[in-house]
Amino acid sequence: MSSSTMLKTLIKIAFKNLFKNKGVTLINIFGLALGLASCLLIVFYVVDELSFDKFNTNANRIYRVNTDISYGGNASSYAIGPPPLAAEAVNKLPQVEKAVRITAATEVRFKKGPENISEPKVANVDSTFFEVFTFPMLHGDPHTALAEPHSIVLTQRAALKYFNTTYAVGRVLTMANNNENFKVTGVIANMPELSHFNYDFLISMSTNEDSKANVWNSFIYSTYLLARPEADAAALSKSLDALFQSHFEKQPGFNKAAFAKNGNYVRVNLTPLTDIHLRSNRQYELGSNSDITYVYIFSAIALFILVLACINFMNISTARSANRAREVGVRKVLGSPRKMLIFQFLTESTLVTLVAALIAVLAAWALLPAFNNIAGKALSINLQTIKWLLPAIFSMVLTVGVLAGAYPAFYLSAFQPIAVLKGKLSTGFKGSVLRNSLVVLQFSVSIFLIIGTIVIYNQLNYIQQKDLGYDRSHVLVIKNTLGVENARALKNDLKQIAGISDASLSGFLPTGTLRQPNSVFKSRTPVPKNAVFTEIWPVDEHYLPTMSMKLSQGRNFEEGNISDSSKVIINETAARALGYAANPIGKSLYYEPERNERDTAIKELKVIGVIKDFNFKSLRDNITPVVMMLQSNNNALSVKLQGADVKHFLPLIEAKWNRASPNQRFEYSFMGEDFNATYRTEQRTGQLFLVFATLAIIIAGLGLFSLAAYAAEQRNKEIGIRKVLGASVSSIVSMLSKDFIKLVLLSFLIAAPLAWLVMHKWLDGFAYRQNIQWWVVVVAGAGSVLIAFATISTQSFKAAVANPAESLKSE
Fold first, then answer.
1. Element (H, E) at 109
2. What is the signed CA dihedral for 628, 629, 631, 633, rounded to 10 degrees?
3. Cβ 531 vs Cβ 217: under 8 Å
4. Distance (Å, rounded) from C-alpha 19 to C-alpha 17?
5. What gap in Å lies between CA 787 and CA 519, rounded to an integer?
6. pLDDT at 205 > cutoff 60
7. In three state form, how does the secondary structure of 466-497 look?
8. How far apart are CA 799 and CA 736, in angstroms?
9. Out of 172-186, 255-269, 502-516, least confident range
10. Confidence of residue 18 (pLDDT cuts 50, 70, 90)
11. Which helix (H) or strand (E) holds 115?
12. What is d(CA 582, CA 365) in angstroms, rounded to the nearest whole number?
């Protein structure tokens, strides 16, 4: 018989057997398809996460500068560096080819006709931006586009928005904040979703005078270095820190020994560009990053789900062994060699896997939009995906088909024909141990996922319920495109609406993400030993009551009190960092204004109040010092609403907005929603855990279902004899169930401590967290036992009520 004829015969027999046992075949296909579809979705997710920033031609040579600071026992990690470091690195370090700085611009408004539009995706960048990063220039010269002050490069999206064409080079865009004009010198393609930063407007850094400052103790700019091909990353990081220290230590009044005496330090180091998205969660990142831990966890889940699906296939095939044993015996008596039987069973398993794989691909494609919604992705099956997907599917079909069918094939083909024709079928000790081990593995994974899901949701609930030190409920945040004077008039007008308790104009909000680090000093000499790294927030007199913040000492700013312009309110953490914890009221601190301010002399500021600490960063981070200064030229407009029906106020507020400026859009958000956005990654992770935990339980349930069927079939005659001797249905169900329940309990003993360790490590990433409660483990264990018992009982009950005459007729 030729090979092709033999293969056709094997396929024909395989199809015949599969259609003959439709129920078992459907369970096999459903279980495998479910596992493969889940695996595919996770693979899409993992590939996407690992692909960030790799579109850059020189991605493996680009590094971001980080700054690590420890002062007064407080350690902080920043994703920014000092202004002169980029140029100095290019000039002094032979390993550095190019460097570029980026700083996000806040509260930028551009004019479009009579309308002012608030744009959140604006950045100032150096002229070398396109020499370091790969963003295709559609129109303009990438080498000169950002060379001159007041130059701006737009994305396609921004060009179409403001000029209705991508041919916008030479056009002028006016910034409404200060009526500055910017000449469009280039248009680039929209930045990829797989970039760790995403902007629509790139303004030349030379527009900003502060960018030229030779200041080494101010950390403002996200700085990226393009290393030469032969450069060693570790050596470059070390050389860069040495270069930084050589300048940092030359500052007037700096005493290196005194500064380092108490363990203080300021260091710079590097992070590879392709590591930023998954391995960097520093303060002042340019975008929201993910965590490599999630990639590891979901990769493990994908592997486990695939293994569970294969285990089910093996168990179901083995459970059919009694039915297939006579077929094997007859074939062997008729001279069929064992090799032929093995090929036959492997052909059946591969066919089932192939059908399951086709269904899985279709299911993954259909479920991709829902998966994207949960995961916050924009995944798609396109030509690029198909290039690696088809070979992957083909390899998966062969691998899963062979691995899942190998044990049943070798197991069934080893039956002795005389024994099986007499009905004497022995499963063997090794087979029993293997099947039991597989059940333990299945439920260990399921219990682990159940515990993980509950812990994540508990932490998210804790975040929602925690007292943050301010009240984010019923606070409406209005995008201010009116300008300072009009916004101030609108604020006063809004306070006349019944039910609006207060309104405030400020520079920053507790739920904001774009801020700038700064320093204040304990004395008039601005040297590092006197510095306290802090955030400086410009606010008005109504900020504290609008945010429902509480003072622990002192007073709030007073409306009309001119002397309060030289006063500050600090948080409790700032009071401790300044050494004023005992009695801060009336104490002085000193502030060095930015270079672009009119008066650049060192300013003495008196503390008039201490506000209770509030969480303005992610609860992953500790609270850091905040200094609030009284300023009237602020842009962020917040309105505190009273009553449950906050939507009732929107038309009233919009009407006043339209009267103040009819040509401007009314855009708003609720502070509670902005807060929730901070934890979107955790929320999505929790949802994904829930989905895949449910799938793992379903697959494990199928496996247990098949094993229960196998066990009932193996003990068929014993059950018949027990029934003849008067055994009750409940006693038989208990007999068949207890061994499986023991396996589930063993799974619990393995999974519970492992899940506790892994999730405890995950919780360690939060400065403010809830401990794992004992009931979480109990619920996971009890739930698993109930699911297992419900699954087993269906098969046990079926076996217990069967007619004993059927099982004993061959005796």
1. strand 108-112
2. -60
3. yes
4. 6
5. 58
6. yes
7. CCCCCCCCCEEEECCCCCHHHHHHHHHHHCCC
8. 9
9. 502-516
10. low
11. strand 115-119
12. 63
User: Which of helix, strand or coil describes residue 501?
Assistant: strand
CB contact at 8 A, 570 and 625: yes
- Within 142-247, strands assigned E span 151-155, 172-175, 180-188, 201-204, 222-227
Structural contact between residues 93 and 236, judged by C-beta atoms closer than 8 angstroms:
yes
Res. 429 pLDDT band, cuts 50 70 90: very low
Tokens linked to 625: 């010092």
Name beta bridge partners: 175. Answer: 110, 180
> Do the beta carbons of residue 49 and residue 290 sit within 8 Å?
yes
CA distance 300 to 293: 11
Q: Which two three-digit tokens encode residue 577?
A: 């960092």
Rounded Cα distance between 143 and 127, Å, is: 7
Distance CA 2, CA 328 (A): 23
Task: Give Cα 510 to chain centroid, integer Å.
Answer: 21
Measured distance CA(118)–CA(176) in Å, rounded: 9
What is the bridge-based pairing of β-strands 62-71 and 636-641? unpaired
Please list the alpha-helical segments (H only) found in 21-141. 22-50, 85-92, 129-132
Contact indicator for 589, 627 with CB cutoff of 8 Å = yes
As a whole number, the mean pLDDT across the chain is 84
Largest CA distance in the chain: 107
Following DSSP, what letter does each residue of 369-406 receive, concatenated?
HHHHHHHT------HHHHHHHHHHHHHHHHHHHHHHHH
Chain-centroid distance, C-alpha 811 = 63
